[in-house]
Amino acid sequence: MDRVANKICLVTGAAAGIGRASALALAAEGATVYVSDIDALRARSVASAAGGHALELDVTREDHWRAAIDTLLAREGRLDVLVNNAGRFLLEPLATTRLEDFRALSAVNVDGVFLGCRHGVEAMRRCAPAGEPARGSIINIASYLGNIGMARATAYCATKGAVRVLTKSVAVECGSRGEFIRVNSVHPGITRTAMTERLFPSEAWEAPGETFARVPMGTWCTPEDVAHAVVFLASEESAFMTGAELPVDAGMTAA
């Protein structure tokens, strides 16, 4: 129950789904969790359940990032773990995907992760004791669709592919400076959340063997499955991992 004891964690998009599950899992393992979301009311509800703090954060806005990090550092003095989870989904054929829709998707899925990494790394550097290397863990939530293509998901696949390589680049840059800021990505498969439930009829979730026949394990992930991976990457159990991509996809990218 103390795998991340005393760590200060910030989770974006934490009002629901994977973000909520990650915030609660980190708190259950001893972390102090800052639950951030564009929906401040729901963020407060999750923060209450996690025994943590709520922050209103639109990940596409740099001023929001500055304010969130400043608030956290003023209270805690350091940032140990950042989970860049906030994201959107778009299922649309290429021919009818408008440029403005692609840009709006990229603003959250790519710009939001870029800004999170930049401000997260800066915070971890600011908090490092004099003469010691900066330390911390940044966990970017990508997708199995950041590794493979899918019809009618060109825009989404492109954004999650960007997160995959952005993660590796930030990891290499921090490592090349002699810092112990680990940066890794988690790649969930089809995960049952309020967002994805709209993509399939209700009976599909009750009889996953038929709907998910192409999935080697024959079923879908839960937000808690992904949260387990987040806790692992936040903990010292993954101390020698950086630039890695961790699939939680029931074998989808292996098939």
Keywords for this entry:
single chain, 255 residues, Rossmann fold, 7-stranded parallel sheet, 9 helices, 7 strands, 15% strand
Furnish the topology, listing elements before pairings.
Layout (H helix, E strand, L loop, with lengths): L7 E4 L5 H12 L3 E6 L2 H11 L2 E4 L5 H15 L4 E4 L14 H29 L7 E7 L12 H23 L3 E9 L5 H4 L4 H5 L1 H4 L11 H12 L10 E4 L7
Parallel strand pairs: 1-2, 1-4, 2-3, 4-5, 5-6, 6-7
Helix pairs in contact: 1-2, 1-9, 3-4, 4-5
Summarize the structure.
The protein has 255 residues and is of the alpha/beta class. It has helices at 17-28, 40-50, 62-76, 99-127, 154-176, 194-197, 202-206, 208-211, 223-234, and strands spanning 8-11, 32-37, 53-56, 81-84, 135-141, 180-188, 245-248.
Q: If you consult CATH, what is the topology?
A: Rossmann fold
CATH homology superfamily name: NAD(P)-binding Rossmann-like Domain
Counting H and I runs of at least 4 residues, what is the number of helices? Answer: 9
Number of domains: 1
Q: Give the CA-CA distance, first to last residue.
A: 35 Å
Shape: globular
What Rg, in angstroms, do the CA atoms define? 18 Å
Query: Biggest sheet: strands, sense, closure?
Result: 7 strands, parallel
Into which percent range does the helicity of residues fall? 40-55%
Spans of 5+ residues with little confidence (pLDDT < 50)? none
| Name of the CATH first level | Alpha Beta
Describe what this molecule looks like in 3D.
The structure is a single chain. The chain has 255 residues and is an alpha/beta fold. The chain has one domain: NAD(P)-binding Rossmann-like Domain (Rossmann fold, 3-Layer(aba) Sandwich). 45% of the residues lie in helices and 15% in strands. It is built from nine helices and seven strands, in the order βαβαβαβαβαβααααβ. Strands 3-2-1-4-5-6-7 form a seven-stranded parallel beta sheet, with helices on both faces. The chain starts with 7 loop residues before the first strand and ends in a 7-residue tail after the last strand. The mean pLDDT is 96.
